Task: structure prediction
Amino acid sequence: MKFRDYFFTYSWSDLRPIHELRDTWVKTYLMFGVAGLFLVKSDSFTKAFVVPAAFGFYPAFLIGAWWQAKQRPAALVENELMVKRVRFLSWIGSFVGSLFLAKFFLHV
Result:
């Protein structure tokens, strides 16, 4: 994938070279959500699953990047732009999750 093509063409197949990162990111996100279902006593699915899962976006990225670096470190360098995009989405997701955690549970 060329730099100039990155901003104009994008598909989920571009994540294939960093599939260890992608798979670990998604699985860890889901684990945060399931943990929230058991740990958060709430009638709302949003409070119990979505908010803890969103909060776990960035830790999930870090775990996925670590796993990718152990399995195929060259893929991180070759697909740097896609890794940066996933990292940015992780930051945004965790930030939004943090805001909702503060709103729902700290009543800020």
The mean pLDDT is 83. The first helix runs from residue 3 to 6.
